[in-house]
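thought: fold this chain, then report.
action: predict
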Amino acid sequence: MSAPQYRVRRATLDDIAALVELWHSMRFPAEELARRVTEFQVAEHEGRLVGAVGLQMAERQGRIHSEAFTDFALADSLRPMLWERIHALATNHGLLLKAAGNASVEY
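observation:
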């Protein structure tokens, strides 16, 4: 049996319903996230959204806002792929990234 294949990509408007459902399952403020966070990267398996990470961008600063999974057992598999996408996005935009713990990394 082979390992599951995940696809990581930028979220589109078609993902909003699945993202809101995921945020609600994690007890995240869905309306606030939809309004304030400007960039989401999602992971999917067989066309189903299984994880996401949000990035709020303002000028040269980026704040990693949320990380969510349909099953937290997937976190170790999905996190490196999602973070690779966030890293590429930060590099492309020349962002100073801040995480919840106030640690900063400049790209």
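thought: worth noting. The chain has one domain: 7-106.
final: tokens above.
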